[in-house]
Amino acid sequence: MLIILTGGTICSFVDKSGKRDSDAERAHTLIEKKFRASDSRYASEECVSFDKEKPLDILSENMTTGNWNILISKMRTYDYSKYDGVIILHGTDTLAYTGALLSILMAGTKIPVFLVSSQLPPDDDEANGNANWAAVELIVNGVEPNIYAVYRNTETDGSWETQRMYIHYCSHLLQCANRSENFTVRIWLR
Q1: Which of 21, 73, 97, 170 minimizes the number of CB atoms within 10 Å of its CB?
Q2: Residue 182: CB partners within 8 Å, gap ≥ 6?
Q3: Is the dihedral of CA 44, 46, 50, 51 positive or negative?
Q4: Got the DSSP string for the chain?
């Protein structure tokens, strides 16, 4: 699998002063280490191997058209025929926008492409980023080629809270609402 690091909260850490900054290399090492230590039947290096690329290392609220152009230019250089799938580590703040862009530019892709993010840094035990790494299992199990975002929402219904995993087509994904960490999709009415 090809892992593309772009930054965002999933690739960030909080320093002693409370400032969050992206460190994609360190984040990837930690995320892969947690995946390898997980109870996933695909966690061994014999089952899944990763090639890593880092075209960007920014917090996603700093995404610009210039950064998208860098990402797109770099993505045009990869030989996707070597991979069963692609996972792009990306921040939540502009996830839906990048996902929509890639849905247009990569329409007809021959392999699945997943945008994976987290509402908290990877070293935080409450982060959903490790759960969102389910993209690996989806690729290994042969999910159809398309551009996806996998994301575990925390939903409240009355007095109880539940966590539910969603696989979204990026072409339908809506940006999180203000003061929300949950992603939803457009509902098509006829």
Answers
A1: 73
A2: 151, 153, 154, 155, 176
A3: positive
A4: -EEEE-BSGGGEEE-TTS-EEE-HHHHHHHHHHHHHHSS-TT-STTT---EEE-S--B-GGG--HHHHHHHHHHHTTS-GGG-S-EEEE--STTHHHHHHHHHHHTTT-SS-EEEE--SS-TTSTT-SHHHHTTHHHHHHTTPPSSEEEEEEEEEEETTEEEEEEEEEEGGGEEPPPTT----EEPPPP-
Which position has the higher pLDDT, 61 or 179? Answer: 61
Report the alpha-carbon distance of residue 174 to residue 69 in Å, rounded. Answer: 22
**pLDDT score of 131 more than 80:** yes
The CA distance from 149 to 27, in Å, is 19
| Residue given tokens 């790494």 in the structure block | 133
* pTM as predicted: 0.89
